[in-house]
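To the wet lab folks,

You asked to see what we're planning to order before we commit. Fair enough. Below is the target structure as tokens, and below that is the sequence we designed to fit it. If anything looks off to you, flag it before the synthesis order goes out.
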């Protein structure tokens, strides 16, 4: 009996155990209350449904007098240095006309060689006669009648070409293709060895067409919104009508409608304004440059948000497992895809916890290290003047600075600088006796593991939390490391993205969804869509 009693932990161990389990609950409750207070602030409804071009300002009608209307337009927008007025005479008609446009927003070749040349030398009196009764016919572009001077001037600033013709009682708007657009190219942030080489661009109409070209379906619907109170932009919510959960769609539209901001410069603004928990370090919407990833998400019952002016679309809702999945998982056979996915989960754990384990073992629990390895580590640490926390911080901060510098530098020298800088700094630090060689290996494995995460935003989150784990380990050893991990799990278990638990299908447990969780089952076995999305049609294949 006495031998058994000797192995029963003392009250100190039981006290630390209670603290390790109770503190995460207390912290999470306080964290949840604070996030609810911040998210409960009322927001004005400033976003209107429909594109920005559909908004109708107060109308001042055209007077019908050419000089009066032209002077009125010049007063409204003529002060802008990039607004050009190109006056000319229609040769066969003998009337004056003027094209009003913003430089750089049209295709100059179509404007000069086709539209303007046609109006100057080929337009006939029948053109004006048809204009009095409706819209004149131009062979190379579409025309629209403007209901008033305000709408006319506003449309010119939005990219249309305005046309005023002497003798016409109203103005005309010419729709020409945009002038300078980036060509469709391979996504930079999500490179694949096998898969489509197509990525979104900064033009919203091109992005929506890329989604349409993934496959023809009448059920793929897109609703347009106008966002921004000062500078307006078009935003599109895309979904598949007969799959998406109506409650999810309604929630997304509600949050988009509640945004109140001067200017949505990038989809990151939208992401931060509509997410569930503003205090969480984890992203609650997934950003992507790949149309194929967006289509796959829509087919699972999710919703996509596309904003004009950015190649990054948003997918809602998102789960933690989605951030460690790659589109290439579905293009390769299921066995190698499953192996690579398991490696990513393991790499994510190393990227988050490896430095914390090093600190806790070296500083508090060297007895848990195998004897031969412990002797080797002790020999390599001889002469190192800093405690393990400072030692790890020196290398980790250096790696993060090199990583950031490699991103900001020009592409030809950025990667080379990061590799050479890491080698030089690591070797110099070891030679100077500032850090131990074993720590260099730990930090290198940690950095390489973080590179294997497909989502760059998720990698940033793990890199940030890694420093928090190091501090926990420095103060409480292995108990602090466990406490940090329990806090993290407690937060993730309560976190939701548009009503979907972040750790689904791990918790709440859904066995059906495990076919596409840690491993990727054969396509023939994944006959149903994820149950967590509650889709209207949950069957993928017969």
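Sequence we intend to order:
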């Amino acid at each position: 009996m006495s031998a058994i009693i000797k192995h029963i932990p003392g009250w100190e161990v039981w006290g630390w155990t209670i603290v390790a389990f109770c503190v995460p609950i207390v912290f999470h409750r306080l964290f949840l209350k604070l996030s609810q207070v911040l998210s409960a602030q009322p927001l004005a409804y400033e976003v209107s449904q429909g594109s920005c071009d559909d908004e109708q300002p107060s109308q001042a009608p055209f007077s019908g007098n050419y000089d009066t209307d032209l002077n009125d337009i010049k007063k409204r927008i003529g002060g802008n240095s990039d607004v050009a007025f190109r006056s000319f005479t229609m040769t066969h008609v003998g009337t004056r006309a003027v094209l009003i446009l913003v430089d750089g927003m049209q295709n100059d070749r179509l404007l000069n060689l086709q539209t303007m040349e046609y109006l100057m030398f080929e337009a006939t009196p029948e053109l004006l006669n048809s204009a009095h009764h409706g819209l004149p016919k131009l062979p190379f572009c579409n025309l629209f009648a403007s209901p008033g001077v305000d709408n006319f001037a506003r449309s010119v600033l939005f990219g249309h070409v305005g046309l005023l013709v002497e003798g016409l009682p109203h103005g005309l708007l010419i729709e020409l293709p945009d002038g300078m657009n980036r060509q469709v190219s391979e996504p930079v942030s999500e490179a694949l060895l096998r898969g489509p080489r197509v990525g979104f661009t900064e033009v919203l109409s091109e992005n929506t067409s890329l989604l349409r070209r993934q496959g023809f379906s009448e059920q793929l619907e897109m609703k347009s919104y106008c966002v921004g109170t000062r500078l307006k932009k078009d935003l599109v919510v895309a979904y598949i009508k007969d799959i998406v959960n109506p409650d999810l769609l309604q929630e997304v539209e509600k949050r988009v409608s509640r945004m109140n901001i001067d200017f949505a410069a990038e989809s990151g603004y939208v992401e931060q304004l509509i997410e569930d928990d503003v205090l969480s370090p984890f992203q609650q919407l997934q950003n992507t440059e790949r149309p194929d990833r967006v289509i796959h998400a829509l087919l699972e019952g999710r919703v996509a948000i596309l904003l004009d002016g950015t190649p990054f679309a948003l997918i809602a809702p998102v789960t933690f497992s989605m951030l460690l999945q790659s589109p290439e998982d579905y293009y390769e056979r299921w066995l190698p895809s499953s192996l690579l996915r398991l490696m990513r989960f393991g790499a994510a754990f190393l990227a988050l916890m490896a430095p914390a384990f090093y600190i806790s073992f070296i500083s508090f629990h060297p007895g848990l290290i195998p004897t031969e390895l412990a002797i080797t580590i002790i020999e390599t640490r001889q002469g190192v003047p800093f405690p393990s926390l400072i030692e790890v911080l020196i290398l980790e901060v250096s790696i993060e600075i090199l990583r950031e510098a490699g991103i900001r530098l020009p592409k030809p020298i950025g990667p080379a600088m990061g590799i050479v800088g890491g080698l030089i700094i690591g070797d110099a630090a070891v030679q100077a006796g500032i850090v131990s060689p074993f720590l260099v290996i730990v930090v290198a494995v940690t950095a390489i593991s973080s590179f294997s995460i497909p989502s760059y935003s998720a990698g940033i989150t793990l890199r940030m939390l890694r420093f928090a784990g190091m501090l926990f380990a420095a103060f409480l050893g292995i108990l602090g490391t466990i406490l940090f991990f329990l806090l993290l799990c407690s937060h993730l278990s309560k976190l939701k993205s548009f009503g979907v638990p972040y750790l689904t299908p791990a918790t709440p447990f859904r066995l059906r969804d495990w076919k596409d969780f840690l491993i990727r089952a054969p396509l023939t076995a994944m006959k149903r869509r994820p149950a967590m999305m509650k889709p209207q049609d949950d069957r993928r294949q017969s």
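Structural context that might help your review: The radius of gyration is 31 Å. The chain is about 45% helix and 10% strand.

Thanks,
Computational group
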